[in-house]
Design brief:
The structure holds two protein chains of two kinds. By secondary structure, chain A is mainly α. Chain A is built from 15 helices and two strands. Chain A has a single domain, classed as Orthogonal Bundle (ABC transporter involved in vitamin B12 uptake, BtuC). Chain A is 71% helix and 1% strand. Chain A has a two-stranded antiparallel sheet with strand order 1-2. The longest helix of chain A has 27 residues. Chain A is globular, with a radius of gyration of 21 Å. By secondary structure, chain B is mainly alpha-helical. Helices cover 78% and strands 2% of the residues of chain B. In chain B, α3 packs across α13 and α8 crosses α13. A two-stranded antiparallel ribbon of chain B has the order 1-2. The chains are: A mainly alpha, B mainly alpha.
């Protein structure tokens, strides 16, 4: 209902009576948000050409899987988690440690065990590992709510980051892990950028499909009810803690998937990709795109990636400040959204 | 016994068991921690004293943070994450004003746009303060247009003064000496008048003039002394940094939070919006100062003192004293003054406070100002103790937040106890681990406290 049929229904409406559709929706923020972000992305990709589009598409796909997974927790269940980057990191590190084939003896740095697994064997392990950690963390976090939930999820992000940085015999700390394997199915090796983009899009499609199945099911409706009023749904006999735990684990597994994909895509990871600030940026993507809307998460991720890539081509901007300026813009956008549109660009739930 | 009754019974007993077990677990945990720390102390008392000193030094910063944070939280009931940026502004304000002094001016920073920005913000806040404090009282008696013009000029003057001070950090002592003189004169006059009223009931013109003369002379002398001692620059820069942080807080409050609270008074919305502010200010600081860590200039007491075989820097003792003094001042303000009564009334029920005639906007503005000043103090103390970097804001914010939750949300006693307790636990926790795990330890402390003692050490009454 929310991802597949809404755009189709919209298109049908446009086709049936374009004039009245325009009159009704020209003041709609959703329409303009969609048009501007998609148009901007399209123009940019056409301008910069194919290689650029493939890179941007890959970055977008990874962020989009993350955003969609986080939206299940933040948007649909109403638990504002700032710690999702931890699961992302767990997935990435599991993939990196299991598949890395680099030998560090020559580099005279700390040696870590090498397993040299293939990508598709390590993928389920990283996803399940993220899920298991989420189960433990979720049991501890289940009783918290609202602002305290924000604080403890900050805590999870800090704990995860410190572990990546300081457990040197497994993660090599700040040196990072090199030569993470690229996926291969028999003779078919996804070592080109374009093939990998295709794979990423398949996984993004999978994540979107799973999310859509969840939010349109009765399970999803219970989640929405928890968000609206947890006591009320408890009165009807639903064990809300179980539901919250379940969606937390599912969402963490999707984040772990995104992390595994990132590790394999960039073939090198270090703890800098999983700092607390990235987690905050991720939350702002989800809020910017729209709470409780899968399409919103995709849009938010696209806007985020295009914001960064777009700023590379502003002539007078020094390149070392791009990340910072993007952060300033995102911060101000968050404030403006909270003032004027607390549900995000195309969202359905006001924080 | 029927089946329903049986299941009812077993459910109740199960719940009781869970409750009981959780208390048991909590007690066991507390005992285990106490035994561990006691064992470590017995094993090497010297080292334990060293860790205790470190814990007190860190705890002073956390206590300062937690006090301001708790004051703001117990008034408006949302977590204002700008608070982290306030700490960073405090530390970087000192760096900005003293950067010509640090490492021979290697990282000297003074940019025109930043000065203009702060001048504009200060002018705006000054204009608002004049409007709130004076205009409403005076505009029925005098010509409103003239009042507006004079007020505008005054505010612009304040802004220009701020800009001048920030643009000439080398001459901080000379530039700030008139301000210090006026402040000292005001305080002296106020004190004299108060004590004079105690002894005699009359207030004739002659003693008033005499008191004013004494105040002016004292102020002038102090101002002159300040103007000829360049060494005071560092301590003046502390004051300026705290004021700037408080000013930004006021600007945010008036410019944003008031409107926002009128639109949707939801704690989560405010939290996310202030998170956006924190993001933006952190990035802004990174753009101006770069992301690499920077040192703050040497201050007094960087020489370690040795007490009982353990070292503590004189500056850390000063920091602990500062935290205790800050606690005393805050406690006096909240418990003994009319302002404190208003703050507590607003914390209990803002609507009712408004109805009984408390100017909630002004009171909350002052609360935000005080909170930001405490955060800035904590930021600059921790900056002098270690080093400053842009992301320190977020980390300090989290520590202050944890300390206030551990101590008991909304309780002032809890804030100082929680701050020092968190510092001690953190330092004793990294005894057997490496120092990089201290953030992890404080979050584990937080989660344990939230799970077993959600009210904190000293709950708010």
């Amino acid at each position: 209902m929310s991802i597949a049929s809404a755009p189709i229904r919209g298109l049908q409406e446009v086709a049936r009576d374009p004039r009245s559709w325009w009159r009704r929706s020209k003041g709609s923020v959703e329409l303009w948000a969609n048009l501007i972000v998609l148009g901007w992305a399209l123009v940019f990709m056409l301008w910069r050409g194919g290689g650029f589009a493939v890179t941007v598409g890959s970055v977008f796909a990874i962020w989009a899987v993350l955003a969609v997974s986080l939206n299940l927790v933040v948007g649909y269940t109403g638990l504002l988690s700032v710690g999702h980057i931890g699961f992302f990191g767990i997935g990435a590190y599991a993939m990196a440690v299991l598949t890395s084939s680099a030998s560090y003896e020559q580099l005279r740095t700390e040696a870590i065990p090498t397993f040299g697994w293939p990508f598709f064997a390590a993928l389920p392990i990283s996803v399940v590992l993220a899920g298991l950690v989420a189960l433990v963390v979720g049991i501890a976090f289940n009783r918290f709510r609202d602002d305290i939930y924000v604080l403890v999820s900050f805590g999870f992000a800090v704990i995860a980051f410190t572990t990546f940085l300081s457990w040197r015999s497994l993660t090599r700390g700040a040196f990072g892990i090199h030569q993470v394997a690229r996926p291969a199915i028999g003779p078919l090796v996804f070592d080109g950028e374009l093939e990998f983009l295709a794979l990423l899009l398949v996984f993004l499609g999978l994540a979107v499909l799973i999310s859509w199945l969840i939010v349109t099911s009765s399970f999803g409706r219970v989640l929405t009810a928890i968000r609206e009023d947890e006591e009320a749904i408890e009165v009807f006999g639903y064990r809300t803690t179980h539901y919250k735990l379940a969606i937390w684990v599912i969402s963490a597994m999707m984040a772990g998937l995104a992390g595994a994909l990132l590790a394999s895509w960039s073939t090198f990871i270090d703890p800098n990709s999983f700092v607390l600030l990235e987690s905050v940026l991720l939350v702002s993507i989800v809020i910017l795109g729209g709470l409780a809307s899968i399409w919103g998460s995709l849009l938010g991720a696209l806007a985020f990636v295009m914001l960064e890539e777009g700023m590379r081509f502003v002539p007078f901007l020094p390149s070392e400040f791009i990340g910072q300026i993007r952060q300033v813009i995102l911060g101000i956008l968050l404030v403006l959204l909270m003032l004027f549109r607390p549900q995000g660009l195309v969202g359905r739930f006001k924080l | 016994m029927s089946l329903a009754k049986l299941s009812d019974f077993s459910l109740a007993s199960l719940l009781r068991l869970r409750e009981h077990q959780s208390r048991l677990l909590a007690t066991a945990l507390a005992v285990a921690v106490a035994v561990y720390i006691g064992w470590k102390i017995v094993q090497s008392p010297d080292q334990a004293l060293q860790f205790a000193f470190n814990g007190l030094a860190v705890g002073a910063v956390y206590a300062l943070l937690a006090m301001g944070f708790t004051l703001v939280y117990s008034t408006v009931w949302f977590f204002d994450l700008y608070y982290g940026a306030a700490a960073a502004i405090g530390a970087y304000g000192v760096f900005y004003l003293r950067s010509h002094d640090v490492l021979g001016g290697q990282y000297a920073v003074n940019s025109g746009p930043v000065n203009v920005l702060f001048a504009v913000v200060t002018a705006g806040v000054a204009a608002w303060a004049l409007h709130v404090l004076l205009y409403r009282r005076l505009h029925t008696r005098t010509n409103p247009t003239a009042l507006l013009v004079v007020g505008g000029l005054l505010a612009a003057g304040v802004g220009v003064y701020t800009g001048l001070v920030m643009a000439n950090p080398e001459n901080l002592h000379a530039l700030l000496s008139p301000l210090v003189a006026v402040l000292i004169a005001g305080v002296v006059y106020w004190g004299l008048r108060r004590s004079y009223r105690r002894v005699s009931s009359g207030t004739g013109p002659v003693p008033l003039i005499a008191m004013a003369a004494i105040a002016v002379v004292v102020g002038a002398i102090v101002g002159f002394l300040v103007a000829v001692t360049p060494e005071l620059g560092l301590y003046l820069s502390w004051g300026v940094a705290c004021l700037l942080s408080g000013t930004v807080s006021l600007a945010l409050y008036r410019g944003l939070y008031v409107t926002m609270r009128e639109r949707a008074n939801s704690p989560m919305i405010m939290l996310v919006a202030s998170l956006g502010i924190l993001l933006a200010i952190t990035a802004f600081i990174t753009i101006v100062f770069r992301s690499a860590p920077r040192p703050l200039p040497d201050t007094f007491g960087s020489e370690p003192w040795t007490i009982g075989g353990a070292n503590i820097k004189g500056f850390n003792v000063f920091a602990i004293g500062l935290a205790l003094a800050g606690f005393g001042v805050l406690l006096f303000m909240v418990k003994k003054t009319a302002f404190g009564k208003a703050v507590r009334a607003i914390g209990d029920d803002e609507e009712v406070a408004k109805v009984v005639g408390i100017n909630t906007t002004v009171v909350i503005a002052i609360v935000f100002f005080i909170g930001a000043v405490y955060a800035a103090l904590a930021g600059l103390v921790s900056g002098h103790d270690t080093a400053i970097q842009p992301r320190m804001g977020l980390l300090l914010l989290l520590k202050g937040w944890i300390a206030s939750v551990v101590g008991g949300i909304g309780s002032l006693y809890g804030a100082i106890v929680g701050g020092f307790a968190l510092g001690m636990l953190e330092q004793f926790g990294i005894w057997d681990l490496a120092g990089e795990w201290r953030d992890v330890i404080s979050f584990i402390v937080l989660i344990v406290f939230l799970s077993f003692w959600p009210q904190g050490l000293i709950p708010r009454k």
